[in-house]
Amino acid sequence: MAKPAHTSYSEDPKIDALVDETIARVADKWTLLLIEALEEAGPRRFSALGRDVEGISQKMLTQTLRQMEREGLVARTVFPEVPPRVEYELTGLGHELAEAFCGVWTWAEKNIGRIEAARAAYDERNS
Amino acid sequence: MAKPAHTSYSEDPKIDALVDETIARVADKWTLLLIEALEEAGPRRFSALGRDVEGISQKMLTQTLRQMEREGLVARTVFPEVPPRVEYELTGLGHELAEAFCGVWTWAEKNIGRIEAARAAYDERNS
DNA sequence: CTGAATCCTACCTGATACTG
DNA sequence: CAGTATCAGGTAGGATTCAG
Fold it and tell me: Residue B58 in 3-state DSSP?
């Protein structure tokens, strides 16, 4: 079968693997929600993010932010004050990813109804 | 701060939560790779998918396909033959999701270099 | 306030064996 | 071929405590 026009898969399986790995790292729940929060609110400090992202534990907040910083998605700025203040914001790369994810977001928002219906139908069939 | 124009977040926090949940369910590694495989190859049978998606166990293949079927992303067709043949293919909803993810895919493919560089820089700073 | 360190649980996942 | 059932190991993630 011919490759659909809107896919953009590399011919190189090694690149494919790298891309898969990259997406896997970037497409986890907390990363997604943090990108969302940062995209919406702009530069934001640690505790504020903890409040923005409902249900996130301090551990996962720290861990995910570190990971995102390492991937180049967020910039971390420490202000030498007392008490300490640390701000996080999306980098250019982070913003671009947020835009890329926008399509998925829109899709989910638009299709909640269809998904719920599909689930109900499935559960009905298998009850 | 004003809401960026390209975000499409609902005003309703309840919808937001639903969308987050939906994305979380749909954005896992194997689901992503299966969408990719199915989008590329069209209708495909169980064992073929197992070969397409490198590293997936039979258990996760079954589990992920069931989940996707429940969410309405894939259709499952059983052919009453001997030996049994079962084919999976993306539904309309599934195809739309694949297209939505296309942006993320493109982003990842385009920015592997920047990510690797960011990671190297981070590791350098923290060594 | 911003984290790091520890402990502990639950689930994710792979391997293996078995069925229609 | 297309699964299901079971078991064991690793890991993600939460709660708690402590520190700069």
Answer: helix
Strand C proximal to A86 Cβ, under 7 A: yes
Q: Reply yes or no on domain A13-125 having CATH 1.10.10.10.
A: yes
CB A101 within 8 A of CB A32: yes
For B85-100, the pLDDT digits (tens) are 999 999 999 999 999 9
Instruction: Tell me whether residues A18 and B112 touch, CB distance under 8 A.
Output: yes
At how many degrees (to 10) do helices A58-71 and B92-125 cross? 80
* Residue B4: band (very low, low, confident or very high) from pLDDT cuts 50, 70, 90: very low
- Give the burial class of A58: count Cβ atoms within 10 A of its Cβ; 0-12 exposed, 13-18 middle, 19 or more buried: exposed
Domain spans in chain B, listed from the N-terminal domain onward: 13-125
Q: Which of B19, B31, B44 to mutate to test the interface with A (most CBs of A within 10 A)?
A: B19
Contact B9 A107 (CB under 8 A): no
| Residues found in chain A | 127
What does DSSP say about strands B44-45 and A85-90: parallel, antiparallel, or unpaired?
unpaired
Q: What is the mean pLDDT of residues A3-21?
A: 64
B17 has a pLDDT exceeding 80: no
